[in-house]
């Protein structure tokens, strides 16, 4: 059995963006990261150009899947079927990425995942890729309201910054960011070339290295495409506490996360009459998911925050506050925790 994150649900990340903005380039960058088991759903099968050697195996033969797997989605109606297959615990995938066609409407796709009937799915965020060099010639003429598509994004990746003349770059990127924030003031924005975002913004690989069953071609492809420009590293902060915590403080953090933390994840323990109970916590952008853990191993609680330009001191202070030890939870805290667990189902 491969190492697995199976005790938690599989995050499903939606990748959207205008035609040619760089979605597939970003996806291939993520697929090249060692260790990760990534499932891919594309709804544009005729036009697929994901690196075949990185996406190995067929979903109909899950036993043969090595580094990841690929599923084609002919129409929106097939999304749940594809998610059902790709989130099967046997595959032990770290993440499923849905690459939309350039014409897809992000808000609609986000709703399809949010209201998916598939039990093992959790929302992993929506990444909108923007072509910095053609933005004001394609998506937006700069007049009137900004495109509403940004409202659904948790992360906006402003790609192809290399194609913006250096003399205009700062001003152009600032103008794009201002338009993005019109409908989504808190969204996280990354500026990249070749879709090279830090994969830690998107998923956790259960193992840091390639599994032994991965096809050698994947490693070869990775070498051939070795990144000349390293990606912008995301920062992270980890806080642990040996005891059970007060859920009201945790809920305060999840309802109003620190602005520079894109993801917050971890496991926390809460005291009950029958001993401590553990919960898995996941926040992406502003969307929180909490689920009761199947097993509780002791009372330790841990949270990790990940983000670009992470304000580490401020974030550490917030995580420390959220993990303040409590031998007994407040009634109000328990009520809020149970409510979030219910809406996370
Ligand atoms: N110069 C430059 N070219 C890029 C960058 N990112 C992607 N490209 C190129 O832009 C073209 C389109 O990239 P894709 O990744 O195919 O874009 P896409 O959004 O998947 O395209 P569709 O699926 O057709 O909507 C390709 O030729 C890429 O090599 C970048 O940061 N800089």
Automatic annotation (TrEMBL):
GO terms for molecular function: hydrolase activity; nucleotide binding. Keywords: Chaperone, Hydrolase, Nucleotide-binding. InterPro entries: CobW-likC_sf (IPR036627), CobW-like_C (IPR011629), CobW/HypB/UreG_nucleotide-bd (IPR003495), P-loop_NTPase (IPR027417), Zinc-reg_GTPase_activator (IPR051316). One of its GO terms (cellular component) is cytoplasm. It catalyses: GTP + H2O = GDP + phosphate + H(+). The keyword Ion transport does not apply. Pfam families: cobW (PF02492), CobW_C (PF07683). Residues 234-323 form the CobW C-terminal domain. Belongs to the SIMIBI class G3E GTPase family. ZNG1 subfamily. This is Cobalamin biosynthesis protein CobW. It comes from Nocardioides luteus. The lineage of its organism: Bacteria, Bacillati, Actinomycetota, Actinomycetes, Propionibacteriales.
């Amino acid at each position: 059995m491969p190492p697995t994150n199976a005790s938690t649900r599989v995050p499903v990340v939606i990748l959207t963006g205008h035609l040619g903005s760089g979605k597939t380039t970003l996806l291939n960058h993520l697929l090249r990261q060692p260790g990760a088991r990534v499932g891919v759903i594309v709804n544009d099968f005729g036009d697929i150009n994901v690196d075949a050697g990185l996406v190995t195996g067929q979903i109909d033969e899950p036993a043969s899947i090595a580094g990841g797997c690929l599923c084609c989605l002919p129409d929106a109606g097939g999304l749940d079927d594809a998610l059902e297959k790709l989130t099967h615990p046997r595959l032990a995938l770290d993440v499923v990425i849905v690459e939309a066609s350039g014409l897809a409407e992000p808000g609609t796709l986000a709703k399809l995942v949010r209201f998916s009937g598939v039990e093992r799915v959790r929302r992993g965020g929506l990444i909108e890729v923007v072509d910095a060099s053609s933005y004001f010639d394609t998506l937006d003429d700069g007049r009137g309201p900004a495109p509403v598509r940004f409202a659904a994004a948790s992360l906006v990746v402003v790609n192809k910054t290399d194609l913006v003349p250096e003399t205009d770059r700062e001003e152009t990127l600032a103008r794009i960011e201002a338009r993005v924030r019109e409908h989504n003031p808190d969204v996280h924005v990354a500026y990249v070339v070749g879709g090279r975002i830090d994969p830690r913004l998107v998923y956790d690989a259960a193992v840091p290295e390639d599994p032994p069953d991965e096809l050698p071609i994947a490693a070869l492809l990775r070498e051939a495409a070795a990144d000349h420009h390293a990606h912008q590293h995301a920062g992270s902060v980890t806080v642990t506490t040996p005891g059970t915590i007060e859920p009201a403080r945790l809920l305060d953090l999840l309802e109003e996360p620190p602005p520079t933390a894109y993801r917050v994840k971890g496991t926390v323990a809460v005291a009950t009459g029958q001993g401590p109970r553990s919960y898995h916590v996941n926040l992406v952008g502003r969307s929180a998911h909490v689920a009761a853990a199947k097993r509780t191993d002791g009372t330790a609680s841990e949270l990790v925050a990940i983000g670009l330009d992470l304000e580490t001191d401020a974030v550490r202070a917030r995580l420390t506050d959220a993990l303040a030890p409590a031998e007994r939870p407040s009634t109000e805290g328990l009520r809020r925790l149970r409510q979030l667990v219910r809406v996370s189902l």
